Structures are given as structure tokens and as C-alpha cells.
Amino acid sequence: MCRVLIYLGSQSVRPYDLLYGPDNSLIHQSYDPKLMKHIQNLAGFGMVAWTTEFPNEEMPFYYKSKELPFFDQNLLNLSKRINSHCILAHVRGVDYSANEIVVRQNAHPFMYEDYTLALAHNGSIADLDLMKPILINMLKPEVIKKITGNTDSEWFYALLMSQFDDPTAAISLDEACAALTKTFQLIREIRIHLKIKKASPVNIFITNGEYLVVTRFVYNFGLQTEQVEKAFLEYHSLWFTFGEEYGCFDGVYKMRGHKKRANILFASEPLTEDRTSWVELPEYSLTKAWVEKGNIIVRTQNLNI
Amino acid sequence: MTKQHIEFLKQIPIFDDFSEDQLRFVNRYIETEHFEPGQKALIQGKKGKALYMIKTGEFKVSSTLPGDYPRQEIYLRPKEFFGEISMLLRHPSSSTISATKASQCEILHRDKLNMFRIFDPMLGYKIEHAIAKLSATRINTKIQQLHDLLVKVNKVESYAENLPFEPIDSAKRKLKNIDDININQLKGLEILHGISHHELYTLLTYLEAYSYERGYVFPVTETSLCGIILQGAMQLLISYDTNLAKNIDVKGPGEIFGPNTLFQSMNHHMQTVIREEALILVLQPAQLNKMKSKHEKLWIKVNSFITRNTVSFFYIIDRQLVRIESEYSDILWRDN
Fold first, then answer.
1. What residues of chain B, 42 to 71, have a C-beta less than 8 Å from chain A?
2. pLDDT, tens digit, for every residue of A233-263?
3. CB-based contact (8 Å) between A280 and chain B?
4. What value of ipTM does the predicted structure carry?
């Protein structure tokens, strides 16, 4: 459930070229995802995009809406007017149920005011209501005050933010990775304590505009119950591609040029029909990427939780 | 002309173990196709539909890796073949293959292979098995390449963050009562769709059910096993030493694994760990042999799953090699 993309590059690109342009763009994935046939992602759109073209460059454009993104003229216009070197965008998918709450507050990414890290989530944490009484004691009071939605993803964000001394201060990549790993561990401990064994996919995407971290992870992958959803019988997907220049070449959106790895793009599913120029990240992994002397460095490590 | 065609097929390694009669039968369904210079037989990213055996001319294999990085081109000449993995698995081709000069291929289309599977299952199986056997040789090469890559990278970068999933010494496997297996769950598995209700019950008489605890490491002696995962997850890692491992594949419910006997020489580079507590239906090699003598039709179907699993492992390991090369390209390119 949900589809996400995250871009980091030396090259600034228009959000349009990720959200609308490619044949399997993120907006296209909201109503016709290729690798997740059982559900559409119509419960909200959100995006954070950092740009150096305007004042206060550490503050990203932050856009969230419960509107269907393919009908959203404001989003379309905005996506063509800004250039960004780091974009995190998300379309939310939920069960077709009246119990689901479709509001702006529940749209991803989450980024509390003045905080430096944004987060989006592809997956779901089972039995969150059972976990909340324990979780609440792990959250910092100033973080609890900021929770406005009711999603498992926002609670994950709040738990992650509670690992930092000051989430409004600059956070290094190493600190972010350590806090993210700790958050995964805490959730695992609560699940063991409560004997929760339902499969729970937690593909996380975080960024501060300068680096990004993604995980491909499922708690208790493969556990089947009578209520299990088909989606949870397959490991949630996560792909990436990289190159010197991103754009539309010969009618196809892709990364071009290999002399320099200037840009990197991660997505729940490839943005193009041809997947051979994309690579799938391994299961149970954490991947980080950052810019060094104009080049993107990327490293994947096992997430042994 | 037929004799000439059959003599040609005899030179293709896929048909090494075929009798004269079998070759004559296969030959009836093989088509000849001519290619002009530059004409593409397969396109990267598009699904292939046939096995191409080169009779005359030459073909160039080119592919672009993620990052727009061109993989070294190779050239295929008469008696060599291509397209077999894409044909068998319906995967998109990982390369573009085009004629460099006027060329001629003998072609076996996938629909003909499907027809063999129905009307002469043993013949269909022999083709699949031959492809799997040839793939295994290439898998061994890929595993060695992956290992060499890790050795190279390890010289310039610490692998402290790439520890393998911690094996748990106390993790055990336990034999379960096969009668407790939910037959409806088995029927729902996509890989068993070609097996009838009656065959499913027969198959169960050859299988053993085991539960595995999280952290159980498969000993090398168990690499000849194969099985169907009903619950849980199994992880395959390529290891350089005890402190370094890269995840290659995770298998979950409804997927089959092993046997790794075809690439046994590389088993010391690999480690299989139970990542989430699992329930697995295991088929011992002795039981598989017994099945061949008593229920040959079922044996062919089961082996067909196994051979396709082997061939798909080639695809998996090739993509993982691409992934790990991509990850460390900054180091690898710098050293070049």
C-alpha cells in the first residue's frame, strides 16, 4: 500500500518530471500501480522539495492534499514551476473501508514545523492500537503535541524524532541512520512483548534535503493468517536508478550518462516500463545516499533487526 | 534438408542428451529466421519469446546497466544460442541482441515448448533441464564474480556494517505431522497450479513438513534439499568471510528453493538462513528418485518447478551482481 519516490541530485529537476512525465510516474501509480494490483493509492498526496532558488533554502516546499492528485491543477502548475535537487513524494493507499480516515493530516510525508527530517512510509504497522500504550511512553512530550493524524506512519515518525536530542537542529547522516535503526529495534521489541506476529512492511524514506535514507524491511515476513492480505505475501518492492543527467530523452524518461553519478532516484516501482535500467534493493536492508564532490555515493547495509 | 537440420541441432549443447528420434520430433517445430545487419532479435527490457540458435553470421550482445553504464559487448557466433532464459521465465531480456551481418537462426518458440510440455512432458522437461544445467555453469561464474568483487571492495572499504543476519546456534528444526498441513493453502499456491487434486495428495506422501526457528542456518549437507515454503522467510547471502555478507535473495510463502547441487562448487561462498520462523515442505533427494520410478508424470512436473527455479536463480544473481557493482561503482571506477 502507498507508493513513494525520493530523488537526490547535483542536478535540479522539475517535480513534474517525476510526478507526471514518465509512463509509470508517481501520479500514474496512484491509480494504476504496476507492481501492486490489488489497490489504488487515492487517499492523499504529499511532497517535500528542497530548492536553492528561493530564500530560506533549508526550508522545503511542503505540499499535502487529500485531493486526487491527477485532478489537482495546483499541484500540476506548481510541479512545472520549481526546480529541486531533493524531492520526496508519496501517494497514500488505504483499505477500501469507511473506517479509514482520509484527511490532509494523514497524507505523507511527515515533517513537523522547524524539524529538519521528513519521512514517508510504504507499508503498515499491524496492531498499532495495541502498541500505542507502550509507544506513548517512548515519545518525547514535545513530539506527542505535534501529532495531528492517526496513522501508524506518523507514530513511526514521532518515535524516530524522539530519538534525537533536538529534532529542529541539523542531524548528521550517521545520527539519522542510528536513530532509524533504533526505531526499528524498538518496534520489534514491542511486537515481541505483545506477541504480535502479523507481517508488517516498513519501507521508510527519510531526507533532510542533503542526504537520504531508505529501508526495505518487513517484520515477520511470510507469516500467514486467515486475514492476511495478498500484498503481505510478497515483499514490498523498492528500486533505484542513477546517472549523470535525468530527463526525457527520445521520448523516454531516464538517467543518461555514466561518467559521473550525479543523481539518484529511489521509487516503490520503476517509473518506466523498461525496468532493466533500474535495480531492486535487497530485502532487510537500509540504504543511504549523499552527495560528495558532486557525485552521489550510495551504500546498502543489512538491517539485522 | 532435415538431416542437415538435425546435424545442426546436435551441435547445440541443449540437445546433447537427445535421441535421434527426439531431435527429429523437435526439428519439426523449429523455424528458420533471417536477420539483416543491425536487425534486432531481442530488445533490452522487452520479453523474449524464443530460443535462438545461430546457424550463420554473428550477433552482438549489448546492454546498458543502471547509471547508463554500457556493459562490455560480447559477440555470439554459429552454434551458440541466446534467449533461453527470457523464453523460459517470461522475464524481460537483460540485453539487446542484434545481427552484425546477414545471419540466420533456428528458432524454437515458447508456445512450441509449452506444447511439448503437454503432449510429450519428458521432452519438454529435457529441454528445460538442459537450459538449467547450462545456466548453472553461468551461475557459478556469477557467484565467483560477486565474491571477487567483494574481495576487491573489502580492500578499500570496511564492511563492518554488512554483517550477516546473526545465526542463532540454538535455533532448531522440528519434524511436523504432514497430515496437519492445510491442503487448501497448498492448493492456493501459484506454483502448484499445474498439479491435480489427486497428484497433490500423492506429492504429500513424498514430502516432510518441518518447522524452522528464526536464525537456523542450513548446513552445507542440506544444500541438496528442495522444498516449498508455506510460512516464513529464508534468506540467501553471499559471504566473503564471517564478518561480511551481502543479501542475494529472500524467499517467502509459495516459493520453492534448492537444490543447489548444480552449483555445489560455489556453496562455500553462500549461506542460507531462516530469517523468519518458517514452515517448509521438504523433498529429500532419495524421495525425488523414488518418485521418478513410481510417479513419473508427477516427477516431471516437480522437476519442471525445480529447473525453472534454477534458471530464475541465474536471473536473480545477475541482477544482484549489477546492484552490488552499481553500489560500489565509485570505488571500482576510481581504481580503474
1. 44-46, 63-70
2. 678 899 999 999 999 998 889 898 878 889 9
3. yes
4. 0.86
